[in-house]
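New here. Your pick:
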Amino acid sequence: MSPLTNEASLETISRMLDELDEPRIVITEQFDILHANPSYQAMYGKEVTGRRCYAVSHGYSRPCNEEGESCPLQMTLASGQPERVLHIHRTAHGDEHVDVELMPLADISGHRHLFIEKMTPLPQASSQPAPDKMVGRSPAFRSMLLLAQRAAPSHAAVLLVGESGTGKEGLARAIHQNGGPGKRPFIAVDCASLTETLLESELFGYEKGAFTGAQQRKQGLVEAAHGGTLFLDEIGDLPLSQQVKLLRLLESGSFRRVGGISSIPANFRLIAATHRNLEAMVAEGSFRADLFYRLAVFPIRLPPLRERREDIPLLATALLERVAPGRPLQLEASAWQWLLQQPFQGNIRELRNLLERASLLSDGDTITLEHLLSEPWPGTPAPVPPSGTSTSTEQQFCSTLRALAEVEAAYLQWAVVHSGLSRRALAERLQMTERTLYRYLAALEKKTPAT
């Protein structure tokens, strides 16, 4: 392609991009920005033409793939196809999650010389602490986010799979909000909290006189979700008898109210969620295989918190704004260190509960390690302080060399006074029998002079 033809093509493409609302640029194989539309300039600054795309969006001095990121241009050059990635870009509004789509343009010889890059910010997610958004920067979080972004515009059924407390309803809402106009209904149903008989009437509604107490017609949740999203949480707890009715709804696209005779068309987007292994339940016969395949058109796994530990500081800061609005709470260094070492079996929900309790225990603006280590209820073992943390007990026993029996006795006395545990719980924590603990304590009482 001659330079004149190339310039004419660029001018035509540029005029087209300037009419679009999404930020878009035209780049070369060498990463040079040849044109940026007004939306891109508003997001990244006006002086971008002639610069390298990775310098503008990331502040890098070399391509994204050399900085550990996935580079859509390198991917497109290798595949010859449009490519899509999720990046964190430096924008005029701070660091933001951006869905990046790159499309190659080819001349008549098939040589790809220009590329159009489209940026779509994700308003429901934040790479900075934000009390009203999903928060994270880790690779696991971004992989999940990109899958959700891909699923959002479609009408395909989405199955969210993850441990309890990983934020499945929050992700379902983000998919819903990214999938179309904002005023569509989002109807959430907790399948685990409804009895088998109540679930049917809640889902499908009922006619007047359908049963004792049905004094007027009631709209069901399926009908209320018309034109929007029906979110079935804990779908693995749905009884087999109701699984059949849900399957019939999905296959026929219609339903009948309890006590009704006419079919009502259903129009909704289905998102289901579970912490259970549905495939294993299918194998053992407690979940219908045909329903599973209807639900799992587009499965998305939510990573547990232990797989995204680098997100804990962001999440903790955002959660403190939610649980203690208006208080400038900060965590001391040892508290941060302890948080980063925890397994968090309850995931984000456990982290939130821990911080909310600690915020109530703190009278000032600082959450200390002691606030986090407080027992949530009597009789439970106190959490273990982080390794390397200096405590008064450590200073007491390690400041000078002492006889081992003396240190053992002093530590046992300290544990009895400060642990707050019952004798049985303390014996378990010290990895000895309750009888052995009593024997040690009895020996200590004989050696301790009366006061």
In short: The CA atoms of residues 134 and 152 lie 16 Å apart. Confidence is low (pLDDT under 50) at residues 1-5, 388-399. The longest helix spans residues 3-18. DSSP finds 19 helices and 18 strands in the chain.
